[in-house]
Amino acid sequence: MAGNDRVVFLPYTTNQLRAIIEQRLHSVPAAITQTDTLASSSSSTTWKLFDDDAILYAAKKIAAASGDARRALNLCRYEREGARGRGFVECAAD
Predict the structure, then answer these.
(1) 20: Cβ–Cβ under 8 A, 6 or more apart, which residues?
(2) pTM of the shown model
């Protein structure tokens, strides 16, 4: 193989991207919480970090656009960082 040869990868399918995202999400906390600082008691609500339907939606959109797993993972990373920026804190799922 010469130095100018390219290796072309086929785009990932929706199911492949969903599996890649789910596998990668096993290494991050499964939920987020936000403490209500305005209430007299420190109550908090917990949400799942990535809903199964959201993962499927992201996988479908990326598969239709490019099939690039890096784009799918970057999208999830961007959303995770956005949640932190809005005051959410990652926690273990109940």
Answers:
(1) 12, 69, 72, 73
(2) 0.72
Q: Which of 6, 8, 11 is nearest to 70 (CA)?
A: 11
Strand partners, 62: none
pLDDT tens per residue across span 24-82: 887 777 667 776 554 444 566 777 778 889 899 999 999 999 999 999 999 988 888 88
Q: How far, in Å, are 38, 40, 58, 81, 89 from residue 20 at the CA level? A: 39, 42, 12, 19, 24
Domain boundaries, the chain: 14-43+51-91
